[in-house]
Each structure stands twice: as structure tokens, then as C-alpha cells.
Amino acid sequence: MTKRPAGLAIALALAKLGWHVFPLSPRTKGPLANCKRCGPKARTAHPIETCPCIADGAWCHGVRAATTNPQRITAWWRRAPHAVPGIAAGPSGLVLIDIDTHGEPLPDDHATALLPGIDLRTELIGEATWRNRSAFRTGRDSLNLLARLRGRRNPWPGDAAHQPLVVTTPSGGTHLWYRAPDGVTLHQALASTRRALAWKVDVKAGWSYGIAPGVTTTAGTYAIASGTVAVIGFMPDWLTREVVRVAGPEHRDTTTPPARPTPAAVVSADRGTRYLLTVLDRGDAQLRTKRGDDGRKQRLAALAYQAGGLIHLSQLTEHDVIDRLAAAGIASGLPARKAEDIARSSLANGQRRPLAIRN
């Protein structure tokens, strides 16, 4: 009897628990490239909503193709047995807190850079808790500071209801997998942005993804340190409030934040929305075939700039568009932070030059 590839076994086990899975490159940790029928040489790019390739066993559209369907997952790994499973956070009902330990230096203005959006000089917390720059070396240090600022001794309580799945990464970092809070739609908040949770701490939610617990890439194994994939705890209330603050809907002036529009809902909303979605889908299909130093940064920037010029005509929010752009950039092999930075800045530049729909 043929032994299942390790990645497939993990993918099927997680899918059975409701984790939405899709294949990643074991080398780049990015989504595998689109199939030929969705590549730039195809006569018509297939939008994710109607793409026939996925049903045929292809893995087009990166994280947005994530599924719990065992037949589809098996077909993917039959074609790419060395792929490693990625997990789509939002569809799986999960939030990933990604704590980095890389050695980048702390930004100069650490009073505002340690916890973006919070000026520690104005907070009722002793200056000694944050003034010493040498005390902050990793994301664990900045997350601990946020917990202390909110009156907690530890970033998370030890009871079972709030127990995350804790995974150690090959680079020495930590992944904390939590159940997503009910009644609010989240998006990713990267440490490199102004809406970050904490220095060197990423929030992966919505249409962002993480490496599946237990898999091995060329860099090493994402080993489970504590907790279990079968029972994932919820974030403690204080951490939920902080995650919603940085990764929740842009406008939170109502008790029930509005859900972000799904592609199926917005596609029929109006002409401007349909036009912008078409531009994004076509640009996405072309960008995802790019690899290496072949203009992928420039192509992503150009697509984001064009989207910025059209967004005023649509019902899509900035977060909707940035998520789509960043996902395309990540699928082409760009680092997540770089893809979001390019998408965010180029979109903003494009918004300064509004465009009209071409007939």
C-alpha cells in the first residue's frame, strides 16, 4: 500500500476538523502558482467564483481556493506530493498570532513603535516598563508589554477555554492559533504596518494564512509545543479587544460591526464594483505566474495604483482591495509584509488620481 505524503496526511486530518487547507511550496512557503488555464497566456482569466480549474484538481487562486473537501485536497497532493498545507485563517474560524524573534533592531521612536497606535508616553504605565530599549528583542517582549499595559501579568490565561495551540517555528518564533471571535470580521494586521498589534507580532486573520501545525518545510518543522488541533481556545477578552482594534472593520461605531462584503455579494452590486473586480482578477492571474526578479513588485504596484484610482467607483473597502492585492503578491512569492506594504502604499497613491471606467 502506498504511503500518503506527510503533507497530505496532515492536510486531511486538519480538514476533517474544519481547517481550510491549500497547498504551499515547501521552499518559499507561498501558494503554488496558478495552472496554465489561469495563467497570463490563457485567453480569459478565470475569476475565483467561477473558476473550473479548482473542481478539476488544480490549485488556482492561492488561499481563496482553501477547502475542507478531502477529494479536492487528495487531488492537489497527487499532483504536488511535496507541497505543505497552508491554513486559511478566516474560513477556518481561526486567528493566528505570529510572534517573530528575528534580530531586526527596534525602531528609533520605540515609545510609539513598540505598540503601534499607542503612545506609551501618554499611558498610565511606569516609564521603566518600556524605556529600556535593550529589554525588547523579540515579539514576545512587545506582546508582554501590551498585556501589562492592559493590566495582565501574562499575555494569555492558563485555563482550557483560552488555551491556544502553540507552535514553534523553524526560525525560533511562535505561532498562537486561537478561535476567531464571534460577530466580527477580521483581516490581517502585519507588524510592519501602522495598525499592528505589537512590534514583531503579526495577526493573521480573514484571507491571510499560516503554515499548518506539524508540517516540515525546507527550513524545518512547525512543531506543536502545547495544546491540540482538536480543541482550540478563544482569545482572552483583553486580547480580543486589541485584535479587533487593529484587525477589525475600519468603522466600529456600532455595536454590531458590518460584515465585509463577500465577492459573490459585491459582484452584482453595481457597475463600478464589477469593473474593479474584473481588473483585480485579471491582474491577479497575471501576477501569480511571476517568480524571482521578473517585475512582480512593479506589477503589483501598478495593479494597486490602478485599483486605487477605481475604488471610489465601487462598494469595496480599502481592506477588501488590499487583502486581494496582498494575496496575489504573496502567491507570486513576495513576503507577506512586502506584498501588503506595496499594496497599501500604491493603492493610496492611486486614490489621489481617480479614474473613470473605460467603455
Give a description of the structure.
This protein has three domains: 83 residues, no CATH class; 134 residues, no CATH class; 89 residues, no CATH class. Helix content is 33%, strand content 11%. It is globular and about 60 Å long. About 5% of the residues have low confidence.
Strands, helices and their partners?
Layout: H1 6-16, E1 21-24, H2 52-55, H3 70-79, E2 84-88, E3 94-99, H4 110-113, H5 139-149, E4 165-168, E5 174-179, E6 201-204, E7 209-211, E8 216-217, E9 220-221, E10 223-226, H6 237-247, H7 263-266, H8 271-287, H9 296-310, H10 318-331, H11 336-351
Antiparallel strand pairs: 1-2, 2-7, 3-5, 3-6, 4-5, 4-10, 8-9
Helix pairs in contact: 1-3, 8-9, 8-10, 9-10, 9-11, 10-11
What's a quick, concise take on this entry?
With 359 residues, the chain is an alpha+beta fold. It has helices spanning 6-16, 52-55, 70-79, 110-113, 139-149, 237-247, 263-266, 271-287, 296-310, 318-331, 336-351; strands at residues 21-24, 84-88, 94-99, 165-168, 174-179, 201-204, 209-211, 216-217, 220-221, 223-226. The protein is 33% helix and 11% strand.
Q: What's the Cα radius of gyration? A: 20 Å
Oligomeric state as shown: single chain
Biggest sheet: strand arrangement = 6-3-5-4-10
Biggest sheet details: 5 strands, antiparallel
Q: Given the C-alpha coordinates, what overall shape results?
A: globular
Query: Mean of the pLDDT scores?
Result: 83
- Given as residue ranges, the uncertain stretches (5+ residues, pLDDT < 50) are 251-269
Counting structural domains, the number is 3
Proportion of residues in helical segments:
25-40%
What proportion of the residues form beta strands (DSSP E)?
Answer: 5-15%
Structural class: alpha+beta
H and E string: HEHHEEHHEEEEEEEHHHHHH
